[in-house]
Amino acid sequence: MIIQTVNELIGQTPMMEIKGYDLPENTRILAKLEQFNPGGSIKDRLGVKLIDTAFKEGIINKESTIIEPTAGNTGIGLGLAAMSYGLKLIFVVPEKFSIEKQELMRVLGAEIVHTPTEEGIKGAVAKAKALGEKIENSYLPLQFENPINPLTYYETLGPEIVNDLDGQYPDSFVAGAGSGGTFSGVAQYFKEQSESVRTVVVEPEGSILGGGEPGPHETEGIGVESFPPFMKKEWIDQVYTISDEEAFYYTKELARKNGLFIGSSSGAAFAAALKEAQTLPAGSTIVTVFPDGSERYLSKNIYK
Ligand code: PMP
Known about the structure:
single chain; 304 residues; six-stranded mixed β-sheet; four-stranded parallel β-sheet; binds 4'-deoxy-4'-aminopyridoxal-5'-phosphate
């Protein structure tokens, strides 16, 4: 296979059955391995969709500056998508997020603006909006409120999962929520296609979907501070709130037992999928998503 640009490698990621754990008979946990996108995460799908749509709608031109608050993966996805157009990039990143992701954004030409960790993603959003007001011909995709975010996953990940299952629907779909785009898009897709699919959201402690207060957590990429505007309550059949300890435990187990170098949000998703497996009848198929890889978190001692 000869490809012309790395963007051709976005999507159609492998789905792997995760074996070696205690499951009811014939129950399967299958994971979409999103680290195999060229920028290394599920957010490459979003980057290309945001940039292409903005060009098509005439919102941006080749002189535009893209400004976005991001934990990093959306920035990398936007950077890859913007490369061929030569767009200027400014990413607003809370300080706590991994240095590897920041380096990858920088090598794609992005300027990184930091906001204090305590101000959370809200602080990054406010800073990005303030920069947008000052900088001429700037565009803020604003993944945390832009309906293109869930639409991306509605159009790509949902149908891919059904295709991976040879046209069948899973009994349950389990995914983490950061912006909530992945979960919302795929949950909407399944709810429209089949009433029987359970759609289940995963969050760390310190995230509000399960009724808790916002607070700090180490699991990177998931956790919401306020209810995402594009998420509907009726899509959430269950919330699993996974402690950092459990997320990092499975992150390590999946490397050692399965050879999967995945990030901590994947560890959390797997912990939730295991809990879900215990509540469903034997023989169920649970599909989850592993959003990125561990190598962008080695500086944060992901395998400590
Ligand atoms: N895991 C990781 C590592 C991520 O970067 C993200 C995106 N912030 C997610 C999970 C959650 O995806 P979403 O924003 O679509 O909820």
